[in-house]
Structure formats: structure tokens, C-alpha cells
Specification:
Pfam families: Pkinase. ATP binds at residue 75. By secondary structure, the protein is an alpha+beta fold. It has twelve helices and eleven strands. It has two domains: 7-121, Phosphorylase Kinase, domain 1; 144-384, Transferase(Phosphotransferase), domain 1 (Orthogonal Bundle), CATH 1.10.510. It has helices at 9-12, 19-26, 37-43, 85-97, 144-164, 203-210, 218-223, 228-244, 260-269, 287-300, 311-319, 350-363, and strands at 52-56, 59-65, 71-77, 106-112, 115-121, 179-181, 187-189, 225-227, 338-344, 379-384, 389-391. Helix 5 packs antiparallel against helix 8 (228-244) and helix 8 (228-244) packs antiparallel against helix 10. The protein binds adenosine-5'-triphosphate (ATP) and magnesium ion. Residues 53-58, 61, 73, 75, 104, 120-123, 126-127, 130, 173, 177-178, 180, 190-191, 208 line the site of adenosine-5'-triphosphate (ATP).
Length: 393
């Protein structure tokens, strides 16, 4: 059992902490596998740049080989994640106990001094963002059968988080880069529970979410209402991306073609959905199934959260166990309708936050990624993350 030097974290720094108090402090979180910083340093060759496999809003990710030869993805959380040791370990314990075929497995963590590092199962085939939706060369051939498995797998993983884990977990950041593929192309949802590791005033959480606006449910973006329905919206966006093989936002396209959801809705109304199925499938797909998946994407992204189906129903609709009532599909909620979004965070200077988020949004507005944003219509809104509540709908 690893020990915890008294220099760890805020609570542990207390000069009056006795061994008994320390034991009590870590009671209940002792089952979390702990790695020493030294061990992870060795595993990644001193966090060598050649072992770096990515970087996201939480920090850098390295590929590493652990003591017994097990390969792992090692996520070094950024300095902003300075949560106290106990709070951190409590969240880690929750995450590491969650196991499902379609969720990335967390092996354990390292909490030493200011280091906060997560150790995950390494997935061989990268993320959907880099493969199916990436611009580079990808050797994977995403046949319809593979896409079907990926969509149903993600839906099952999310249904598990929403409906079977107690208390339920709202992922908050379902998107293509958080869907990793193993060697058999089984999809695994990554980063669930991570938002809870962040102290409430961690500014990059807002920036990170703002970086993936295309997946954000309008009620979450505008009013900070975070419920499972916000995840279901993001899932709907992802579903239409997988079937169409396109990113939700593409500022390189002419006006009117930039926002995938808008197009899907238009084509649905014209009864021409089949036109939006990925042409790289070269017609080798089940037309009824592919169009049904697109309609389910529309059901999940409806503007009114209450109308979006629960994930367990989505799984049944995808697999054909449950029919979809087309009469009930209403227009999607489109963030692209908003002309001005202001990030408000009561912990920060509002002006500063707004500026930096706009910089984030527009600096990449020429690319095909998801951090682009429309300034077309007239509505004005406030994007607030301080009022985020986890409520059940
Ligand atoms: N378990 C893993 N196995 C293999 N590669 C991984 C794993 N976890 C992360 N990666 C790689 O590291 C990259 C960065 O992941 P990370 O989660 O830090 O950022 P992100 O998903 O792009 O954004 P965000 O921080 O918003 O989740 C991923 O795109 C993926 O390529
Ligand atoms: Mg991620």
C-alpha cells in the first residue's frame, strides 16, 4: 500500500495531522490503485515528447509501459487541477469502480505533491475525431457494420452512466475525441467523471467546453442547465457525424452547409435524408437503418430537452427493438442561431473570460474542427457554467 507523505495537497499539509488522522483521511479511498510519480516517469521515458499521444483541455496524454509490461495512456492533469488529495481520490474511486465494455478503464492515479496523473487502459485505434472525422490518412475502413457497432456501443456506454451507475453520471463532454477505439474497433467513452475532478473555479473547464460548442445542448450553453438530456443532445450530434462522416461544423463550406444538424433537419423535412449518408460507404449500407440512425440523431437533438429520449430507449431504437415515432420529431436546438454568447463565470473577471473564449472560438474558425461558431442571427445569450446543476429530467 503506497504511503502519503505529509506534503500532499492542501488538507494534508496541516502541521497537526497525526498518523491516525491520516489513516482516517484516506479510509475509503484506499482501494484506488496508486502509482508513484517515479514509476510513471520510467513508464513514459521521463514524459518524453515522443511518447506524447495527445493534449486536451485537462492536460497532456502519454503512452507508457507500466512495470509488468502493461501499456497505458497516462494523462498528466494541468496545474489547474489542484484539488485536495482527499477530494481528488474520492472522485477517482468513483470513476475507477465503473466498468463497462464501452467505457475506458481507469487503472489508477498518481497524487504526489502537485502532480495529479490518471492512468488509463491504452486504446490502440485512437479517437473517432482522428480517424473517422480526421483530415489525415486513416487506414481504418469504417464500413456500415463497424459504424453500427460504434453507435450502439457508445449509446450503451452512455445509457450505463445515465441509468445504471448510482448516482448517475452526466458526462458533460460527449464528442468524437472522447470516443476511443480498441484493437477490434469497439468504442470506449473516455473522460467520464473528469469534470468533477476540477475545482469549481478552474477556468479551463469553461474554455474546454466552449471549444466543443458544436456538441453543446443549447439549454446547457445558454442557461447552464446540465442534465442527462445535455449528454443525449451531444450523443445525437455524434450519431449524425458517424453516419454522415462529417464534423458537426465546417466553416470551409458555403453558408447554409456549415452546420450538419441544420442540414440534417432540412433534408429530413424534404425526405431526402439518404443524401447525407457518408458517400465513402459507396452505397454499401442498409438505407433504412442509416436513415433511422439519422432520425434518432434528430430525436436526441430536439430543442426541448424533455422531448429527447432516454439513452436506454435510444439503444432500443438503434437496434430496432423499438420503433421511432416520426410524427414526434421536432426541430433541433441550434446554437448556430445565437449571435452572441458570453461566458460568465462569477469566479473570474467576466470581461477577461469573454475575450479569451472568443479568441478560442474564432482562432480556429477557418478549420474543420468543432470550435467554430456562428454569428449569424439575432438572439443573444449568456453561456454560464457557474449555475450548472445536475438535475434529473
Ligand atoms: N486511453 C487512451 N488510449 C489511447 N489514446 C488516448 C487515450 N486517452 C487519450 N488518448 C489520446 O490523447 C488525445 C488527447 O486526449 P484528451 O482527453 O486529453 O483530449 P481531448 O479528448 O482531445 O479533449 P478533452 O480534454 O476535451 O477531452 C486523444 O485524442 C487520444 O488521441
Ligand atoms: Mg478526452
Amino acid at each position: 500500500m503506497p504511503c502519503f507523505p505529509c506534503s500532499f495537497g492542501k488538507r494534508v499539509e496541516s502541521a497537526v495531522r497525526t498518523p491516525a488522522a491520516a489513516a482516517e483521511e484516506f479510509a475509503g479511498v484506499q482501494n484506488v490503485k496508486q502509482y508513484s510519480y517515479k514509476e510513471l516517469k520510467v513508464a513514459t521515458d521521463d514524459f518524453c515528447i515522443t511518447n506524447k499521444i495527445g493534449e486536451g483541455g485537462f492536460g497532456s496524454v502519454y503512452k507508457g509501459k507500466l512495470k509488468h509490461g502493461k501499456v497505458a495512456a497516462i494523462k498528466v492533469l494541468s496545474a489547474e487541477s489542484q484539488q485536495g488529495v482527499r477530494e481528488f481520490l474520492t472522485e477517482i474511486k468513483v470513476i475507477s469502480e465503473i466498468q463497462h465494455e464501452n467505457l475506458v478503464k481507469l487503472y489508477g492515479c498518481c497524487v504526489e505533491g502537485s502532480h495529479r496523473i490518471l492512468v488509463y487502459n491504452y486504446l490502440e485505434n485512437n479517437s473517432l475525431a482522428q480517424t473517422l472525422l480526421g483530415r489525415g490518412n486513416c487506414s481504418i475502413k469504417f464500413t456500415w457494420r463497424i459504424r453500427w457497432n460504434i453507435c450502439v456501443g457508445i449509446a450503451r456506454g452512455l445509457a450505463f452512466l445515465h441509468e445504471e451507475v448510482r448516482p448517475h453520471i452526466v458526462h458533460r463532454d460527449i464528442k468524437a475525441s472522447n470516443i476511443l477505439l480498441d484493437k477490434d474497433l469497439t468504442p470506449k467513452i473516455s473522460d467520464f467523471g473528469l469534470a468533477r475532478l476540477m475545482p469549481p473555479n478552474a477556468t479551463h473547464v469553461s474554455t474546454r467546453v466552449a471549444g466543443t460548442l458544436g456538441y453543446l445542448a443549447p439549454e446547457y450553453a445558454v442557461r447552464g442547465q446540465l442534465t442527462r438530456k445535455a449528454d443525449i443532445y451531444s450523443f445525437g450530434v455524434l450519431l449524425v457525424e458517424i453516419v454522415s462522416g462529417r464534423c458537426n461544423t465546417n466553416m470551409r463550406m458555403p453558408d447554409g452547409d456549415r452546420y450538419l444538424l441544420e442540414r440534417i433537419w432540412e433534408y429530413y423535412q424534404r425526405r431526402e435524408l439518404v443524401e447525407l449518408v457518408d458517400i465513402s460507404l459507396e452505397g454499401h449500407y442498409d438505407v433504412e437503418e442509416a436513415c433511422r440512425f439519422l432520425k434518432i440523431g434528430l430525436l436526441c437533438t430536439q430543442d426541448a430537452p424533455k422531448l429527447r429520449p432516454a439513452m436506454s430507449s435510444v439503444v432500443k431504437m438503434l437496434t430496432g427493438e423499438k420503433c421511432i415515432d416520426e410524427m414526434k420529431i421536432t426541430a433541433p436546438g441550434l446554437l448556430s442561431d445565437l449571435s452572441e454568447v458570453t461566458i460568465r463565470n462569477t469566479h473570474d473577471n467576466a470581461d477577461t473570460r469573454t475575450t479569451s473564449v472568443y479568441k478560442d472560438l474564432y482562432s480556429s474558425s477557418d478549420s474543420m474542427n468543432n470550435s467554430t461558431f456562428s454569428s449569424g442571427a439575432s438572439t443573444s445569450a449568456t453561456l454560464t457554467f457557474t449555475a450548472v446543476k445536475e438535475r434529473s429530467l
